[in-house]
C-alpha cells in the first residue's frame, strides 16, 4: 500500500478549505493526512478545526514581529542563514528597481517570522505544504527551505480569482468590483512572485446580474472546496509536472514560462 501523503497546512482565517481537505482525506478522495496546521493568527478558526481533529497546530505572531521590526530593526533576531543578497536576487514580489531599503524592510521581518515558522513545523515532516487562506506572502527565504529540490515544487496555493487576473488579497472582491461577468478560483504552485506561480487548475462560474459580492464568494468557495482536494490528489498520484515553455512575444523576443502538465492516470 502506497504511503499516505503528509500534508502541512497554513491558514489565517476560517479554514473552510482546510476542512474540505481534512474531509477529502477522511473519505479517501486524497490518500493523505494533514500532519500540522500553522497560522499567523492565534484566533484563526482553522486552528479550532484542526484541534477538533487532533491535528497539531503551530502559531507565529507575524503581526508582533513586523511591529517590533518597524519600531527597531535591530531588536529582531535575523536568522543566521539569512542572506539579503540571495533573497533580493530571487524575490519578484516588489519591483527590482524599488529602493533596496524598502525591499529590505518588507523581506527581513517576514524572513524572521518564517524562520520561527520553519522551526515550529520541524517536528512535522511533510510532503506537500498547502496554503489554505494563508494571507502572508512567502519570501524566497522560506520557499527555498521547503522546495529543497528546485525541480520538485511542493507549496500549493488557492487563489480566489482567475489568475493572472486579480492577484492580491481580495480576488472575489476585485473581480466583482471590476464588473466581470465570469469569476473563478485558481490552484497554483508558489514561486517567488505574488500569485504568479505555475497554474495547476482553475474553475470558473458566471456572475449573474442579481449576484451580490457575498453570493460571488459563496459560489467561489463551493468550487474551491472541490478543486483544492482534486489538485492535492493529483499531486499525491505524482501526476503534476512543471514544464518550462519557451513563449514567443509580439516584440520578437522570447521568454520562459513555467506551466503545469497533468499526466494521465496510471492504470492500476
Ligand atoms: C479562500 O477564498 C481562498 O481562496 C482565499 O482566502 C479564502 C480562505 O477561506 N485565499 C486568498 O485570498 C489567498 N491570497 P477559508 O479560510 O474558508 O478556506
Describe the structure.
β2, α2 and β3 form a beta-alpha-beta unit. The two termini are 12 Å apart. The strands form 2 sheets. This protein has a 7-stranded mixed beta sheet, with helices on both faces. A two-stranded antiparallel ribbon has the order 8-9. The chain has helices spanning 16-26, 45-52, 62-71, 84-90, 100-121, 140-146, 171-178, 213-236; strands at residues 5-11, 32-39, 57-59, 128-131, 155-159, 182-189, 199-206, 240-248, 254-262. It is globular and about 50 Å long. Helices cover 36% and strands 23% of the residues. The protein is α/β, with parallel strands linked by helices and 268 residues long. Glycinamide ribonucleotide (GAR) binds at residues 11, 13-17, 46, 132-133, 158-160, 169, 171, 185, 221, 224.
Structural class from helices and strands? alpha/beta
On the 0-100 scale, what is the average pLDDT?
A: 96
Q: Which small molecules are bound?
A: glycinamide ribonucleotide
Radius of gyration: 19 Å
What is the chain-wise order of helices and strands? EHEHEHHHEHEHEEHEE
Overall shape:
globular
What separation lies between the terminal Cα atoms? Answer: 12 Å
What percentage of residues falls in helices of 4 or more residues?
A: 25-40%
Biggest sheet: strands side by side, in what order?
3-2-1-4-5-6-7
Number of helices: 8
Q: How is the main sheet built?
A: 7 strands, mixed
Total number of beta strands: 9
Point out poorly predicted stretches. none
Strand percentage: 15-25%
